Amino acid sequence: MLQPPHQPLQVAAVPPQRAPAREDEAGPWHAEAVCRRDEAGLFFAPSKEPTAARLAREEAAKRVCARCPVMVECREHALLQPEPYGVWGGLTAAERRVVLARRRRREVELRKAAATERIAQAG
Ligand code: SF4
């Protein structure tokens, strides 16, 4: 599991199970990340963060992501890993879970449709 590009700037907020950042695993998008240069402290929740503060921080992080040239790559990385914490590619962890659930439902629907098509063609 990778740390996001912004992670080295805020080690204290990192959940302990996350591995150190590895450039070779991150891919070329990692070097172009806006959050790599600045914006530390926005992407991961400090412990016991009040809800209003969390929502404000996440919105601020999303604004940074919105101007990031590698947002799509970052988002896909976080969805494919999947990354369980923080804002990645403009999505919170909860939003990524929703996207992943939709993708799984869509895959099931496509498999069912393909099976139905094969049965129709065979019969
Ligand atoms: S999309 Fe957001 S979290 Fe991802 S690299 Fe860019 S600024 Fe960082």
Automatic annotation (TrEMBL):
Upon Fe-S cluster removal intramolecular disulfide bonds are formed. GO terms for biological process: cell redox homeostasis; negative regulation of DNA-templated transcription. Its cofactor is [4Fe-4S] cluster. PROSITE patterns: 4FE4S_WBL (PS51674). Residues 1-27 are annotated as: Disordered. It is found in: Cytoplasm. Coiled coil: none annotated. One of its GO terms (cellular component) is cytoplasm. It comes from the Bacteria. Binds 1 [4Fe-4S] cluster per subunit. Following nitrosylation of the [4Fe-4S] cluster binds 1 [4Fe-8(NO)] cluster per subunit. [4Fe-4S] cluster binds at residues 35, 65, 68, 74. Residues 34-98 form the 4Fe-4S Wbl-type domain. One of its GO terms (molecular function) is protein-disulfide reductase [NAD(P)H] activity. Residues 1-16 have a biased composition (Low complexity). It holds the Pfam family Whib. Its main location: cytoplasm. Acts as a transcriptional regulator. Probably redox-responsive. The apo- but not holo-form probably binds DNA. This is Transcriptional regulator WhiB. It comes from Streptomyces nymphaeiformis.
